[in-house]
């Protein structure tokens, strides 16, 4: 039988927790004079909260008989609410999972439900699942998805999504959902392999998260029949209602790509919806700079500004989430048996806590972040500096594909017919056309074309940050491409922008070329500098990090640059194949 997340404490630990109630053992912490949120009754209660290590063991009027060595916390001046939950986290947006966990929990978001895509792509099964166990030993509650598709065209996709891999992920107790289901058209077109894994997900009582931008009533109905339980892709209040009407849970997004939350909530109120029990909120894997104002604390504040009552706004990222994932017996509320993820607020107008307990451990106290300094052994899992032990030559800068990429926005690419001569050393400074290359991180193949809309005067940009970890080169001149690549190689991974005099700005990504070991505050400054430098050179959108990430992502229209070549998403075919070097 598959053990779910609820099977969290061993028999010995449960017996010890029972001993606290009996008075045979002292609690580790007692919160006295607490005015705490009863999430079930949607009301405030007063009393005391006993904690044994990482678990709440009692909530009520009584005090423990045995308090030898117990830490007593007087909460008379606080409102006590459950730790917030980010249910749709992509913990690989330059930051790594532990960086995000620290930043989030120090601001009250003590549970993250994380995308597993990068772990699928970077690690073998044994290392990936061991990583899940080791990350769970930190104060933040780290839970995960199980992807059904890789969101791009991979050369080795059959190995990545093998039966043994998928089964192991879905059965893992820290994996609490299937999805997100980005390749849902394949299921509708008869992909029984993916449908099999969706049914397996339902068999182990884990919800399925959709990815259904722009879906109409018929599509949503079909997705409901396939077992999809929720979706985060609503772009209007009307689209939220469509999801609710087919029985789904709807998540409202406030992200660096889609900062829609305030507008959507306002539209929902105009449409007459004032019941928030099937609504969630998410930052949807925002890039570092966008998180500067906070995580779920910031979203709660935005919801309240649009007229959502405080208790309902908190419920949208606590109790509602826990019920949706069938784990309200472990997280999402203040009650016996739940993890001691607790936020202490000074007022109901400010959701940023003064104090935060995560698994019973202080991660913020008196307004000061105090997450423990964890020296996590990333190299144990193969996350080491990127060593590019190969070189580019002049022969690699051969551009013969007649179709280029035209950027509609940060992430949408349309094809266009290339009319300029790409055999020249440098493209015209008067156009916004740049050379574009995707190169295998092992140097075995390349895709070479042109791109419009990414910028105008970018001499050279190199990035090992991409959906698949392969190398992206963009620039006005072939010399600029080579210069950027050489700097990337010297830096051992990351994103680097060069001009004719050398490097302009860079973001070192020391973990496999895709993740930074720097704290979030450092990453925010690094990203801001890159964004400013790119905008000075003609980048006209707001999120270059997502542009780099999604060049290969086939869940988006219309064309993508993948390991197999330039790929037509709608027709599901390679238009121009990658070239072996």
Automatic annotation (TrEMBL):
It catalyses: adenine + H2O + H(+) = hypoxanthine + NH4(+). Pfam families: Adenine_deam_C, Amidohydro_1. Residues 79-363 form the Amidohydrolase-related domain. Transmembrane segments: none annotated. The keyword Hydrolase applies. Its EC number is 3.5.4.2. InterPro entries: Adenine_deam_C, Amidohydro-rel, Metal-dep_hydrolase_composite, Metal_Hydrolase. Residues 428-572 form the Adenine deaminase C-terminal domain. Gene3D superfamilies: Metal-dependent hydrolases, Urease, subunit C, domain 1. Keywords: Hydrolase. Belongs to the metallo-dependent hydrolases superfamily. Adenine deaminase family. This is adenine deaminase. It comes from Evansella alkalicola.
């Amino acid at each position: 039988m598959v053990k779910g997340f609820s099977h969290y404490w061993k028999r010995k630990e449960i017996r010890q927790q029972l001993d606290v109630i009996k008075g045979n053992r002292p609690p580790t912490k007692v919160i006295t004079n607490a005015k705490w949120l009863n999430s079930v009754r949607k009301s405030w209660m007063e009393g005391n909260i006993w904690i044994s290590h990482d678990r709440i063991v009692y909530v009520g009027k009584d005090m423990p008989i045995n308090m030898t060595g117990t830490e007593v916390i007087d909460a008379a001046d606080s409102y006590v609410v459950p730790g917030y939950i980010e249910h749709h986290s992509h913990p690989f947006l330059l930051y790594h999972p532990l960086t995000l966990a620290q930043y989030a929990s120090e601001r009250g978001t003590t549970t993250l439900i994380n995308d597993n895509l990068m772990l699928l792509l970077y690690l073998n099964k044994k290392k990936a699942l061991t990583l899940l166990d080791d990350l769970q030993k930190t104060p933040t509650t780290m839970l995960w998805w199980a992807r059904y598709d890789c969101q791009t065209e991979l050369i080795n996709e059959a190995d990545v999504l093998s039966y043994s891999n998928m089964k192991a992920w879905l059965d893992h107790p820290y994996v609490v959902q299937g999805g997100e289901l980005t390749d849902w058209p394949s299921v509708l077109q008869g992909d029984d392999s993916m449908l099999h894994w969706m049914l397996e997900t339902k068999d182990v009582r884990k919800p399925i998260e959709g990815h259904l931008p722009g879906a109409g009533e018929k599509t949503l109905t079909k997705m409901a029949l396939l077992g999809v339980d929720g979706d985060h892709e609503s772009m209007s209040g009307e689209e939220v209602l469509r999801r609710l009407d087919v029985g789904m849970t709807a998540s409202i997004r406030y992200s660096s790509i889609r900062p829609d939350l305030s507008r959507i909530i306002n539209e929902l109120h105009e449409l007459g919806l004032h019941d928030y029990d099937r609504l969630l909120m998410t930052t949807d894997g925002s890039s570092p700079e966008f998180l500067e104002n906070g995580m779920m604390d910031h979203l709660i504040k935005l919801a309240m500004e649009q007229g959502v009552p405080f208790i309902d706004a908190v419920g949208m990222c606590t109790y509602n989430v826990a019920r949706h994932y069938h784990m309200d017996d472990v997280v999402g509320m203040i009650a016996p048996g739940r993890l001691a993820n607790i936020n202490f607020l000074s007022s109901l107008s400010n959701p940023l806590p003064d104090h935060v307990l995560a698994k019973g451990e202080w991660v913020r106290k008196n307004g000061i972040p105090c997450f423990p300094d964890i020296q996590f052994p990333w190299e144990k899992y193969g996350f080491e500096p990127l060593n590019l032990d190969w070189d580019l030559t002049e022969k690699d800068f051969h551009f013969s594909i007649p179709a280029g990429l035209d950027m509609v926005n940060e992430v949408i690419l349309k094809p266009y017919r290339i009319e300029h001569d790409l055999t020249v050393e440098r493209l015209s400074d008067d156009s916004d056309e740049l050379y574009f290359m995707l190169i295998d991180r092992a140097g075995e193949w390349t895709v070479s074309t042109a791109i419009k809309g990414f910028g105008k005067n970018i001499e050279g940009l190199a990035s090992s940050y991409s959906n698949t970890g392969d190398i992206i080169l963009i620039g006005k001149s072939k010399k600029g491409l080579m210069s950027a690549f050489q700097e990337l190689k010297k830096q051992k991974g990351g994103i680097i922008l060069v001009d004719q005099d050398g490097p302009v700005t860079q973001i070192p990504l020391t973990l496999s070329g895709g993740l930074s070991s720097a704290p979030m505050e450092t990453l925010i400054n690094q990203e801001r500098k890159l964004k400013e430098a790119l905008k000075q050179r003609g980048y006209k959108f707001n999120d270059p990090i997502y542009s780099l990430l999604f060049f290969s992502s086939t869940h988006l229209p219309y064309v993508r640059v993948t390991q197999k070549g330039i790929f037509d998403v709608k027709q599901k075919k390679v238009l121009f194949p990658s070239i072996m070097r």
